[in-house]
Specification:
This protein is an alpha/beta fold. The chain has 9 helices and 21 strands. The chain has 2 domains: 202 residues, Quinone Oxidoreductase, Chain A, domain 1 (Alpha-Beta Complex); 130 residues, NAD(P)-binding Rossmann-like Domain (Rossmann fold, 3-Layer(aba) Sandwich), CATH 3.40.50.720. The strands form 6 sheets. Strands 3, 6, 9, 12, 13, 20 and 21 form a 7-stranded mixed β-sheet that branches. It comes from Bifidobacterium primatium. Belongs to the zinc-containing alcohol dehydrogenase family.
Length: 337
């Protein structure tokens, strides 16, 4: 079977490998569409993602839609081979007192397509893979497999929304129009936000933001955000200037959720508004069980397919990664098996 591998920095290949065999606690699936995430791009460009360094050829991909290769029992129901499914990529770690309801931040968990541990936790860019049945979700009626590959990044956005609380009637800014920001913006519209604006430094992703329902867009390379305006801000860029701008744009009493991942280094930030406006600043990491809500929102919101800008067959995976690196011409790029 075909498997995509990243052996190290700047190395990408498609190899032939033996088909996996599942034990009694797992099931074999056939991935169909896999989204290229920022972490996948880092592994290829740098040979690492944060502190996770490639020590063996890594199969990337944690944004996975698939079909069952065999019959399975999912959520207590018998599900036949061939059924389309989405994959929850996490194995939660060691439960800690005080955060029993936050498994996404329990230590020692793992995630598909990650080099955090050795042996690595290989991902979904493969013709077949083995997963636990509890990681599978049968797709809602009418949801296509390509759109289902958006469930993981949408779940990240929905987790941030969950931490922020009720969004109905709120004026909301999404800072950063990458795939997570775009999907979060579309979800905020569907969940009843009074107004959703999106900011970025590029026009192309802002055009997609309009297509998924954003009422206003701001190219912050050319114009400033309105000050003291937004009840909620979802900061999805992870860049210091964007964070500083978010605090200025937040209204008195606002909540800012940090969704974009930050580098582990000292950077200058202007957070002076946090005191005078009594801003609540919340961190958000991956997700818990929001994938079920994500799949239903995708099924109910066809406009979110606009986030998918390119689909490449696995034989052209190098082209897929090259395009995915360029935010001026791509939002979410999928690899198809």
């Amino acid at each position: 079977m075909k498997v995509v591998k990243i052996p190290g920095k700047g190395q990408l290949e498609v190899i032939e490998a033996p088909e996996p065999v599942a034990d009694d606690t797992h099931v074999v699936i056939r991935p169909k569409f896999i989204g290229i995430c920022g972490s996948d791009l880092h592994y290829l460009a740098d040979g690492s993602c944060g502190l996770s360094v490639i020590r063996e050829p890594l199969t990337p991909g944690h944004e996975i839609s698939a079909v069952l290769d065999e019959d399975a029992v999912i959520d207590g129901k018998n599900v036949p081979a061939g059924t389309p499914v989405a994959v929850h990529p996490a194995t939660f770690g060691d439960k800690l007192p005080g955060i029993e309801d936050k498994p996404e931040i329990w230590p020692n968990g793992s995630y598909f397509g990650s080099a955090q541990y050795f042996p690595h936790t290989h991902g979904g860019m493969t013709e077949k893979m083995v997963v636990r049945p509890d990681q599978l979700r049968v797709l809602p009626e009418g949801l296509s497999l390509d759109m289902a590959a958006l469930a993981e990044p949408l779940s990240v956005g929905l987790h941030a929304i969950r931490l922020a609380g009720d969004v109905r009637g709120k004026k909301v800014l999404v800072s950063g129009a990458g795939p997570i920001g775009l999907l979060a913006a579309g979800a905020l519209v569907s969940l009843g936000a009074a107004r959703v604006d999106v900011s970025d430094v590029l026009d192309a992703p802002l055009a997609v933001a309009k297509k998924v329902g954003a009422q206003g867009v701001f190219n912050v390379a050319q114009e400033s955000l309105p000050a003291n305006t937004y009840d909620l801000v979802f900061e999805c860029a992870g860049a210091a200037p964007a964070i500083s701008a978010a605090f200025k744009a937040a209204a008195p009493g606002a909540t800012i959720v940090q969704v974009g991942m930050l580098l582990d280094r000292d950077v200058p930030l202007n957070l002076s508004a946090i005191n005078g406006k009594e801003i609540t600043y919340i961190g958000s990491f991956r997700f818990y069980d929001e994938i079920d809500q994500a799949l239903q929102i995708l099924a109910d919101t066809p406009a979110l397919k606009e986030v998918i800008t390119q689909v490449y067959p696995v034989d052209k995976v190098a082209d897929a990664f090259a395009v995915a690196r360029d935010s001026s011409q791509s939002s979410k790029v999928l690899v198809e098996f």
